[in-house]
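Records of this kind hold a single protein each, on a pair of labelled lines. With that in mind, the following record should read easily:
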Amino acid sequence: MDVADEAEIHRVVLIRDLGAGAVGVVVASFAAAVVFPPEDPVGRVLVMAVACGLLATALSDWRASLAVAVVAVGVFVGFLADSAPPVPSPWGFTPVFVVAVVLGVGNRCLRALRRRDEGHRRS
């Protein structure tokens, strides 16, 4: 396999992860809107943050995980926090999403290290 084939595979994986992440964020935003009333932005943030963390754990490209966080913040600020009564500072919840994605990526890295360590033990 040459370098061009590997680059094409990485592009396909990135596109697949971006699509899956976007769908996951949309589903989580609908769930947050249905489960929590507009007066409870913290509940909506928690649903979106948990979804971000789970998606970051499942996605294989770090750029897709970053894009999921950006899209989740945008959806929260643009749609979920823009309701009656308005949230005074919806951008203030951004660190919650960042921490969720960092924890998800960290979980994925730890699982990869454990699999690699188990592979070395078997050899």
In short: The radius of gyration is 17 Å. The longest helix spans residues 3-35.
